[in-house]
Specification:
Strands 1, 5, 6, 7, 8, 9, 10, 11, 12 and 13 form a 10-stranded mixed sheet that branches. This protein has a 3-stranded antiparallel sheet with strand order 2-4-3. The longest helix is centred in the C-terminal third of the chain and has 26 residues. The protein has 14 helices and 13 strands. Helices cover 35% and strands 12% of the residues. The radius of gyration is 23 Å and the shape is globular. The two termini are 43 Å apart. Helix 4 crosses helix 12 and helix 10 packs parallel to helix 12. A hairpin with a 2-residue loop joins strand 7 and strand 8. By secondary structure, it is an alpha/beta fold. It has one domain. Pfam families: DUF1501 (PF07394). This is DUF1501 domain-containing protein. InterPro entries: DUF1501 (IPR010869), TAT_signal (IPR006311).
Length: 474
């Protein structure tokens, strides 16, 4: 039944795109983009430019060594659970955190009077927090309904449903990105793209993936435009002779782009045709987008974010007002070797996100572009030796000029194993849902209240459709 439902959604989306293409005709070089216009009117009168950029940390980020208790009492609990790294444990030293403490503002008190520090390799994000451009969201994760520990442990999944296939990489990556486990055909970024297409002249550039395949940007109508490195994805055999023959190149072109009777083959051919047709156009736009911001070298995430920054700089040429982007970095599955490797990865995230923020300042769009992190899941507070295992709730960061930064959002979990926030070995039961996270971003982006359930399908079951970490839309 689930597969059939998803195929029906795909069929309807394909038929809508096909009928729209027929309506505008094939003469215009932008016909395929115009054919993707959304039926929803939520963005039809949206003014100005806005973009959301999802930074996905593949593998399940160890949140407990990303935001670490710094005050003496809570640090002692953390150290007791994780153990000193000098003795083979996975706790960071308290002294290493002195320069990256994130003080809560006056009037905000965290659980057990906790003071938190960000990882010592993330000094740039610490600085952005202090200047009010970055906000941490505490203990967020996929939830179907609000859950207490008692409800979770009751095993009554009909009254207290939980997300399917918890603690599984593929399923929880998909659940974070789409609200469904592996097999989902749309993500909440793509569903925002469905609504946003009508505000873009060239709607094929609404959702752009600078990383690789991910359900996050797939919509019922919007389909992600994928780039590879600094350029649009191209097929070399279509742009030059193959084996010295133009006929071979032409045959490959025909095979890849000819329409077929099977709907999925036809949709695939249409997607390839779009990529081929617009590669030169988008590469030309990228070539004209000059930025002086230094993104450094040897950092794959920074390279992806540099491409995103150049696309934003080219927004006039691309004729877009609303965009959703996806970038990623892997390597966070630290069942072992956590100390050293994890800090190095977080250092790459810190450098890349800060460079991207500086680029938005250079372009004068810092308050119009919001970057946020996500990951498969958090990890266990308890150590398995020299690493940690799959968990559930985690901590994440939101950054941009439109962020109400310099304070914490969500609820800080107690530093304890078998505590009120723990469903086993320090696996956090989320106190904030991904639906609340996505709805808050969607509201800032311009999604109307009536359309919000299409983005965040469980939002009606939660009390906080707006968590407050974004400034009011203007």
């Amino acid at each position: 039944m689930f597969i059939g439902k998803n195929l029906e959604i795909t069929r309807r989306a394909f038929l809508r795109r096909s009928s729209q293409l027929a309506a505008v005709g094939a003469a215009s070089s932008y016909a395929m983009g115009l054919a993707g216009m959304s039926e929803a009117a939520a963005f039809s009168s949206a003014g100005g430019y806005k973009a959301l950029v999802c930074v996905f940390l593949y593998g399940g980020n160890d949140h407990a060594n990303t935001l670490i208790p710094f005050d003496d009492a809570n640090y002692a609990r953390y150290l007791d659970i994780r153990g000193r790294s000098a003795d083979g444990g996975i706790a960071l030293s308290q002294s290493s955190l002195a320069n990256t403490v994130l003080r809560a503002p006056q009037g905000q008190t965290l659980t057990d009077d906790m003071t938190l520090a960000i990882a010592p390799t993330m000094p740039r994000l610490a600085a952005r927090y202090r200047e009010g451009a970055m906000a941490p969201l505490l203990n967020v994760g996929p939830l179907v309904v609000p859950l207490t520990k008692q409800q979770y442990e009751s095993g009554n999944n009909s009254s207290y449903p939980r997300p399917a296939k918890l603690f599984s990489h593929n399923d929880q990556q998909s659940t974070w990105q789409s609200s469904q486990p592996e097999g989902s055909v749309t993500g909440w970024g793509g569903r925002m793209g469905d609504l946003a297409q009508s505000s873009n002249t060239n709607s094929m550039f609404t959702a752009i993936n600078a990383s690789g395949n991910a359900v996050f940007l797939a919509g019922n109508e919007a389909q992600p435009y994928q780039l590879s490195g600094d350029t649009a994805t191209t097929i070399r055999g279509l742009t030059k002779r193959v084996y010295g023959s133009n006929d071979v190149s032409g045959a490959i072109n025909s095979l890849l782009t000819t329409h077929h009777g099977h709907m999925l083959q036809a949709d695939h051919a249409q997607t390839l045709a779009r990529s081929i047709e617009y590669a030169d156009f988008i590469n030309s736009a990228l070539a004209s987008a000059n930025l002086s911001t230094d993104f450094g070298s040897g950092n794959g995430l920074a390279k992806q974010l540099r491409t995103v920054a150049r696309l934003i700089a080219a927004r006039g040429s691309l004729q877009v007002n609303r965009q959703v982007f996806f970038v990623s970095i892997g390597g966070f599955d630290h069942h072992d070797g956590l100390i050293g490797s994890h800090e190095a990865l977080l250092g790459q995230v810190d450098s890349a996100m800060d460079a991207f923020y500086r680029a938005t300042l250079e372009m004068g769009v810092a308050d119009q572009v919001t970057t946020f992190t996500a990951s498969d899941f958090g990890r266990t507070l308890s150590s398995n030796g020299d690493g940690s295992d799959h968990g559930w709730g985690s901590h994440h960061f939101i950054m941009g000029g439109g962020v109400n930064g310099g304070r914490f959002y969500g609820t800080a979990p107690k530093i304890a194993v078998d505590g009120p926030d723990d469903v086993g070995r320090g696996r956090l039961l989320p106190t904030t849902s991904v639906d609340e996270y996505s709805a808050t971003l969607a509201k800032w982006f311009g999604v109307s209240p009536s359309e919000m359930p299409s983005i965040s399908p469980n939002i009606g079951r939660f009390d906080n459709p707006d968590l407050g970490f974004m400034q009011a839309a203007t």
